[in-house]
Design brief:
Radius of gyration: 18 Å
Shape: globular
Mean pLDDT: 92
Largest sheet: 9 strands, mixed
Strand order of the largest sheet: 1-2-9-3-8-7-6-5-4
Helix content: 25-40%
Length: about 190
């Protein structure tokens, strides 16, 4: 909340979701949230749809070739990766702030990457198994190279990307590359 002034609430397995939601909203406001979003539509009255979290899929062998290479970051790059991640994701709908603890877990799992092309850093990403959870190009027009480089580290021919429907630039890039929406993972609504 302090970083973006946004809060995201997901109510799960509650006997009184409305009461719990109100407690969460009160807490988020108390710590400085100026915008609050909720993912449980059963708690929502007259709230505006904010975004859908989409899973889009495509076949890895049909992605464009690239000379870009993705390298798993090491502990010494953690701070730089976190700064880039938080800067790039600040304006992305439904993105989370990357804490130092979460970044350390990514380093341990070897799922956080820097993408280099011709000796120059062009992007970062988070990828594991068959899913790319986050992509950020550091140069305009390099998103497809970052995606293609990250996809080489996946264990499956089927590539999945996770994207907010309101992240129009990313959705447009994925569609141009041939990705199709395979399912909606969550729907978020603005309540404040």
């Amino acid at each position: 909340v302090p970083y973006t002034k946004r809060a995201y609430i997901r109510i799960q397995n509650s006997q009184a979701p409305g009461i719990l939601l109100q407690e969460c909203v009160d807490f988020c406001r108390a710590v400085g949230a100026e915008e609050i979003y909720v993912a449980d539509e059963s708690c929502i009255n007259n709230s505006l749809h904010y975004t859908d979290i989409l899973e889009m899929t495509h076949v890895r062998s049909k992605l464009p070739e690239t000379i870009a290479v993705a390298y798993a970051i090491v502990e010494q790059q953690l701070s730089e990766f976190r700064d880039l991640y938080n800067d790039k994701m600040r304006s992305v709908p439904n993105s989370a702030y990357l804490s130092e603890q979460k970044a350390k877990e990514m380093v341990k799992k070897q799922c956080a990457y820097m993408v280099i092309q011709e000796g120059k850093r062009i992007g970062i990403g988070v990828a594991a198994n068959d899913t790319i959870e986050m992509i950020a190009a550091l140069e305009k027009g390099k998103g497809k190279d970052v995606l293609a480089a990250l996809s080489k580290h996946l264990s499956s021919e089927c590539v999945r990307v996770i994207v907010a429907s309101e992240n129009l630039n990313a959705v447009s890039l994925y569609e141009r590359l041939g990705f199709k929406v395979s399912r909606v993972l969550a729907q978020w609504y603005k309540i404040l």
